[in-house]
Specification:
By secondary structure, the chain is α/β, with parallel strands linked by helices. It has helices at residues 9-18, 22-25, 40-48, 68-78, 100-109, 128-142, 169-177, 196-209, 241-246, 248-258, 271-281, 288-297, 314-324, 343-356, 381-391, 408-417, 434-440, 448-454, 470-481, 497-500, 571-580, and strands at 229-235, 263-268, 302-307, 332-335, 365-371, 397-401, 422-427, 458-461, 484-485, 511-514, 526-534, 537-544, 552-554, 593-598, 609-611.
Length: 612
């Protein structure tokens, strides 16, 4: 389980409202019946925050079922134990009951209602699907929404999905997608009772997910009424709300100041992040395809696109390919360069990185920047940045990556060789999201903080993205001012082969397609063509219209090298046969229907298939 580092803003407000002291929060409450079990850390967290307590002295009763009273009390405390002036509508909830205010509050908020008219059933068990419904209502209220949902169906992947009641289906889908409720053995057991240990885990997962700040402070920039000129700022994205506003939001605001005649809009390339934000906060952010469709629907004529990507890696390559497919939708389409493109860019960004950590230049401290890393050729920017830093005399600055090289372990050796005593970690990324908070500053043993700490260094983590720096914001705005047409940038484009294929075309999904196939010679007919896509391979099956059209093969006839258009003979022998054959005689291999395996990047219009 990932260790928790700080209280969520919502929980912190609740704890403060309860008036709990630091000593109370840190109380070392231990239970013999959870020691050494999977739920120990979850239960410890619940009891330290006084959201749940044991059933008796020294016993938490982790395997006993959670009651409805205990459930609403935990949520009530998490909300800060707000005052409730309503009357008690339930005959089975005593006025002096410890959970009385919590029950009334939950009922008033629409978070948990009674079992029937006037009956709450405080000692009753709670089904897993009921937990999903109640948690959804609580989470939605916390972010100012009536409900939250997940746009993708994940329930159908479980064998017992049909057992989820209709009233709970959307909430259950949301809770499972959010990983608050998990299955076992391919089943969710939606009508099973929730144990106290399971509830502790569910609450901890929710709190972790809700701990990234207030989404309402970030402008998703997805409105219509755009006008004729749009500046689309494209970012990978981050689900960390506070940091999204401080980095991507700050860059977009700088663009608005630099381009007063353009409407600035946002597009994220990570649909996983988009789904996470929408599911957790109810905030909709356009992906690039949606943003481009919005621009077209609003009658945009002049489209200016500025990526916040550091390099011309896969993300930039995918963006360019996407834009190439919609050039005809606008009068002009221009794109600005990634952050690190020219020598001047490297010099400017290097200086910004040094200025951001200048307070640590004491001769004893090494500043290590963590980049993302990429399989693309553009991964070389990290070595290039290291050279700029070293050549400019900043020998105590080091650059590594989380998913490529140099690694944290590589930097440890360099820092040791430099004789430094202290290490400052900062992300070399536009945002400080999951990688910065967990892979860099997290407590897991393989995080950068843990690696450097284990090596004997005093470690300081500054979880602040490059997008917060004004120098970076202004450099991206300058790139937007220098934007060029897609075919005039001079920047190498390398789309992700998993998304587009090496030929730059999106691969088709598995299935059977009817394909339009024609021959340049009108006297020959192709009766039909069926394309089958399966497991990353394409097979085209052509039905020919006559025996005269019997020489079909992938590629042009003279691009085959030593391969013969006829699979039954070598190319040299085939050429000899072609010269001496009787008129209109068939090839020695004349099936009426032939099949060829095509590369995954072949077009649906039978790329590379030519009649001889």
């Amino acid at each position: 389980m990932r260790k928790w580092n700080k209280l969520p803003a919502l929980l912190l407000a609740g704890v403060m409202a309860l008036g709990l002291t630091t000593a109370a929060l840190a109380a070392d409450v231990t239970y013999a019946d959870v020691a050494g079990t999977w739920s120990e850390e979850y239960v410890k967290r619940m009891t330290e925050l006084e959201l749940m307590e044991g059933r008796s002295a020294g016993s938490f009763a982790p395997n006993e079922n959670m009651t409805r009273a205990e459930l609403v009390l935990a949520f009530y405390r998490l909300a800060g134990s707000p005052a409730s002036g309503g009357k008690n509508p339930f005959s089975d909830v005593a006025e002096d009951a410890a959970y009385r205010d919590a029950v009334i509050w939950a009922n008033e908020k629409g978070i948990a209602s009674g079992r029937s008219q006037g009956v709450f059933d405080p000692s009753g068990d709670v089904q897993r699907q009921e937990i999903a419904k109640i948690l959804n209502a609580f989470a939605a209220d916390a972010v100012g929404r009536k409900t939250l949902h997940n746009r993708i169906d994940v329930l159908s992947g479980y064998a017992d999905a049909a057992q989820v009641s209709d009233w709970a289906r959307e909430s259950m889908n949301w809770a499972v997608a959010s990983e608050f409720i998990t299955g076992s053995g391919g089943k969710l057991n939606p009508r099973g009772a929730v144990t106290r240990a399971q509830m502790a885990a569910i609450l901890c997962r929710y709190m972790d997910d809700a701990s990234t700040g207030d989404a309402s402070k970030d402008n998703p920039r997805n409105s219509d009424s755009i006008g004729e000129s749009e500046l689309l700022v494209v970012s990978f994205g981050t689900s960390y709300n506070d940091n999204r506003a401080a980095t991507i939001g700050a860059v977009e605001s700088a663009m608005e100041k630099a381009f007063p005649d353009y409407a600035v809009r946002r597009g994220f390339t990570s649909n996983i992040i988009i789904e996470h934000i929408q599911r957790r906060d109810g905030v909709v952010i356009d992906d690039v395809t949606e943003a481009l469709a919005r621009a077209k629907a609003n009658g945009v004529k002049n489209l200016l696109v500025q990526p916040t990507h550091l390099m011309n890696g896969y993300e930039y390559g995918d963006l360019v390919k996407e834009l190439e497919g919609c050039v005809s939708d606008f009068e002009s389409v221009r794109i600005g360069a990634p952050l690190l493109t020219t020598d001047e860019d490297f010099a400017a960004v290097a200086q910004a990185m040094v200025d951001a950590a200048a307070g640590y230049d004491d001769g004893k401290t090494a500043v290590c920047y963590m980049g993302h890393g990429s399989e693309a050729a553009a991964n070389g920017i990290y070595a290039r940045m290291q050279k700029y830093l070293s050549d400019s005399g900043h020998d105590n600055y080091f650059v590594g990556t989380v998913e490529a090289e140099p690694t944290a372990e590589d930097l440890v050796e360099l820092v040791k060789a430099g004789g430094y005593e202290k290490v400052v970690l900062r992300p070399m990324m536009i945002v400080a999201g999951d990688h910065a908070n967990n892979d860099m500053a997290g407590d897991d043993e393989d995080s950068w903080k843990s690696v450097f700490t284990a090596a004997g260094f005093q470690v300081v983590c500054e979880v602040r993205g490059l997008g917060e720096l004004e120098a970076i914001q202004q450099l991206l705005a300058a790139h937007a001012r220098d934007a060029k047409a897609l075919d005039e940038t001079g920047i190498h484009v390398e789309p992700n082969p998993e998304n587009w294929g090496e030929a730059g075309e999106k691969p088709l999904a598995d299935g059977v397609y009817t394909v339009e196939a024609t021959c340049k010679e009108s006297m020959f007919k192709i009766a039909g063509c069926e394309l089958t896509v399966a497991g990353g391979e394409m097979t085209a099956r052509l039905t020919l219209g006559s025996v005269s059209f019997d020489r079909m093969f992938p590629g042009s006839m003279y691009s085959q090298g030593d391969n013969s258009p006829c699979p039954g003979m070598p190319r040299g022998l085939w050429r000899l046969w072609w010269r001496v054959r009787p008129p209109y005689s068939p090839c020695p291999c004349p099936p009426w229907t032939r099949s060829w395996a095509l590369p995954p990047t072949a077009s649906a219009r039978t790329r590379g298939m030519t009649g001889a």
